[in-house]
Amino acid sequence: MPFKRRHDSDDESAVVKKLNIGSEEHSSDLESDLENATEELHLGYLKTINRSRLDFDFEKVCCISLATVNIYACLVCGKYYQGRSKSSCAFSHSLDEDHHVFINLDTLKVYILPENQEVKLRSEVLEDIKYQINPTFSPEDIKNLHQLKEISFDLQHRPYRPGFVGLNKIGANDYANVVLQIVNHVDALRDFLLKGEFEEELTKRISLMTRKSWSSRLSRPHLSPHEIMQYISDKSGKRFSAGEQKSPKDFLVWILTNLHSELTPKGKTRSLVSKLFQGKVKIITEKVANGVPTGSRLESSTKYWILTIDPPAFTLFKDGTGLTQIPQVKITHLLSKYDGETAQKLAHGNKMFKLITVPPFLLIHINRMSGSHGLEGVSGTSRNPTIVKFPFENLDMSPYVEGATGPIQYKLIGNVIHQTIPVTKMVDGTEMAIDSHVYKIHLLDQVRGDWLEIQDLNVKPVEKELLFMQETYLQIWQKVL
Ligand SMILES: [Zn+2]
């Protein structure tokens, strides 16, 4: 049956009406002929889809009009266009480029343009694309993530582990990538985010990223954080963006605070996020007069998302061969800050800390970047390169928790590493030496029992024994029940 392009659906119904004249049986034959012909035609168009050019991690913006609503992706070239009416950018694109298959990025309905026909195939030919845009997880799928060791393959048959998927560096966003990986890998939070459809804007976007990251049907084994960083930049008033490197610790606190505020039910003060990550610390302030404690003590308490520990003042010391050695310190030594006795000496008094509660997922920040006790970098910025030694399992927090009656054991599940790389940069025609700060993350694959390093796009196995040799910056500990 020859096919003529029709430009709106009214024409189509007119044809169907005409065909309806005659006996019922006859007309239903004709209808089904028409349906078959349309289906055949649509299948022909679907062959023009170029899956290797499709990437649904980008902000949903029309590349011509910059509109952000009613956006379609051209499945032939991957570009985004608004609308499908005769005056729309998608419509023009279909005529200009001879590209005819478009998907609505909200409804996931597929249309042929300029005919403006919805593709209603019974086959599952488009399911992989719809799944790429919006992966979904059943309770069974989520349960399987805790036990299945199968690896997946992308479009080019490259193997990857779902969940251990790199994130593009689109500027200076390595600091954000490590934080997004943390959110992806705390299993109690991940399982919640995988369940899917949220109304809250930040949660919705993080959920989508988590669902994509754990998808076993990715077309390529990495994701772009472009859309989510664009949103975060707007929501944070440009405090956190892809273009400028910030502190991963500050960004993690921002993410947790905002998720917490979105997910706290009305009239309540706690959310899943605060239940998983928030603890409470007691602060004891002892007044000092003329350098002598007065015996007057004030107690207060505050909630924390992250415990900060401070490596001791850094001094380079030389070994017998004249080489400088980087000092090493045990994490338990640094955690004694929270034993309620070790005092931080401040101008107006001494401060002691004791933990009142510790959360199921304990975040520990090693404070290397502030204070004047660091190693001068080539750019003059200082950092403390002290090596912090830590166990992988059986970190007992009970010495730091008020009223603890038995061990409170934690195991390490993630470790953010800071690296300083000296680079030269041209400033006003002069070569300047500066420090480039790089963040990457080591993650425990809890199902397979090994560790992987993710630095932006790159994912590789890493020897457990080598983990503490680098500058650990932020650690994620899971309480062992
Ligand atoms: Zn196109």
TrEMBL record:
Per the record, the GO terms for biological process are:
protein deubiquitination
User: SMART domains given for it?
Assistant: ZnF_UBP
Checking PROSITE patterns in the record gives: USP_3, ZF_UBP
Species per Swiss-Prot/TrEMBL record: Kuraishia capsulata CBS 1993
Q: What is the name of the protein in this document?
A: Uncharacterized protein
What the entry lists under SUPFAM superfamilies is as follows: Cysteine proteinases (SSF54001), RING/U-box (SSF57850)
Taking every annotated instance into account, which residue ranges of this chain make up the domain UBP-type? 41-140
For the keyword Ligase, the answer is no
